[in-house]
Amino acid sequence: MERTNTLNYRCGSNSDTLSCLRAADVNTLQTLNTNINLNGFYGTYTFVPVVDGTFIVERPTVTISKGRLNCDYLLAVTNANEGYIFVSQITKLDVADYVSELFPNFGPAQVAGAVMMYQDQGNNVNQANLVMGESIFICPTYHLLEGFGGQAWKGEFSVPPARHGYDMQYYFASDNSPFITAFSNSFMAVVMYNDPNYRYTSGDITPPWMSWLYRGTEMIFNQTSSGVPHIYTSKTDSALLERCAYWRNVSAYSAQ
């Protein structure tokens, strides 16, 4: 169906839609792009990859479950509060309405399942933060970890506030503090030696890092308010894995 926007610019009826768009005034296209994104649901992208049966032949969850991977090793680090910046912190939506807006293909059964998983996770804003963070970032990471078996390691960046993207400054820092050395060396050790446990730089205080397949072991990267590193191993929360199992079960409806 062809949609008409506020500028009444149409290309849907043109036999060559790409040429039509290329011929359009750039200011018109910029305005359209802005309007489309502003009308999208908060924290989401309006243009995303879709399964077309040719270029993308199936959902990534299906591909991963078949063991069809394009590399041999995986080091996956998520942040403790991934969803925060993608959720309006003054939203009035309850978890049922939030999930329905985030995943419009969900039916009553899928929404009810999400409510069951998150209804006891604090207030409605905290529930939305968790839904966004876990459904989009964290749970797909665990699906990948399972696909790689014993060749995958899991970490969590927990330095407060540990929101999405807040770890970037620690990857490329110029200093050689104990925390920076431990955090960045783990990545480079996998790149160079296929193992985050390879200590190629002195001063790396990271404890032995077992693969995630081994008892759900994760490496937690944190530090105190005074900057003292607090790096330790932990076990993946069983309640989180239960919620991730829910997201895997509804992945056909979330297009994942």
Shape: globular
Q: Which architecture of the largest domain does the CATH hierarchy give at level 2?
A: 3-Layer(aba) Sandwich
- Taken in chain order, the helices and strands follow as HHHEHHHEHHEEHH
CATH class call of the largest domain = Alpha Beta
Q: Which residue ranges are poorly predicted, with pLDDT under 50 across at least 5 consecutive positions?
A: 1-7
Structural class assignment: alpha/beta
Let me know the average pLDDT: 92
> How much helicity do the residues have?
40-55%
- Characterize the biggest β-sheet: 4 strands, mixed
Number of helices: 10
- For the termini, the CA-CA separation is 24 Å
Record field, number of beta strands = 4
Content of β-strand:
5-15%
CATH T-level topology of the largest domain: Rossmann fold
CATH superfamily of the largest domain: Alpha/Beta hydrolase fold, catalytic domain
**Rg, Å, rounded:** 21 Å
Strand line-up across the major sheet: 1-2-3-4
List the helices and strands and how they pair.
Elements: H1 17-23, H2 26-38, H3 60-65, E1 74-79, H4 95-102, H5 108-118, H6 124-148, E2 152-157, H7 168-171, H8 178-193, E3 217-223, E4 229-235, H9 238-249, H10 251-254
Parallel strand pairs: 1-2, 2-3
Antiparallel strand pairs: 3-4
Helix pairs in contact: 4-5, 4-6, 6-9
In short:
The protein has 10 helices and 4 strands; from the N terminus they run αααβαααβααββαα. By secondary structure, the protein is an alpha/beta fold.
List keywords for this structure.
256 residues, disordered N terminus, carboxylic ester hydrolase activity, Rossmann fold, AChE-related_enzymes, 2 domains, single chain, four-stranded mixed beta sheet, CarbesteraseB, globular, 41% helix, alpha/beta, AB_hydrolase_fold
